[in-house]
Request: fold
Amino acid sequence: MTDAADEDALRRELAQYARMLVEMGLLEFKGGNLSARIGDDEMLVTRRSSAKGAFTDDDVVRTSISHLDDNANIASSTYEIHRAIYLQTDARAVIHAHPSQTVSLSLFLDELVPQDENGMLYLRPKVSVVAPPSLFGWNLVADQMAACLVSENVVVQKWHGTFAKGQDLAEAFHRTRAVEFMSAHLIRIAQLRQYFGEPTPLPAEMAEVIGGVPGRQLKRMV
Ligand SMILES: [Zn+2]
Reply:
């Protein structure tokens, strides 16, 4: 496929996943952002302040990964995080969303450790939580968040949202959904234990095979 055909196809894909993030409750309406690598040193990324719920191919910007060019100014407001992830990891696509249950948990925990089998499979061994040092200081922790994604599939920015990497947008989208499913389980476990007693972790010999850490987040914290 030529570069131009590649770009057209990727623009359509970005628009499709942007709308799906809103439709599936992972974003409000605006906010969030998505990108995908193209060529040797570039990415296609959503335009700053674009409405993901009514997204079109024209809301996509093409910009360099290795250096700041003119389009960097109109690219997503967390463009620096996307850039750092592409520079530090093997990611081909990145999705930033606002999954509400995961964000709620980030107020309590410094890492999220999946306890269900699917969560372990998709998010092993854990999902780190990184706190920005100031209001809107998202890009100040870009390198730190990218470093987490060298060995993890999703990282959470505390009080804010998730960044998921993938070999394509489908994989990054799947992981964004997976982290919210995992968070729902963790919250439900915390709620149900008062009625049913202590939960039973996945047996270690089963979890080991898929790189999970059973029981790590099941101990009562208060
Ligand atoms: Zn955001």
Remarks:
- The two ends are 56 Å apart (CA to CA).
- The CA atoms of residues 4 and 117 lie 41 Å apart.
- The chain has a mean pLDDT of 92.
- The beta strands are 33-38, 42-46, 60-64, 93-97, 111-112, 127-130, 154-157, 161-166.
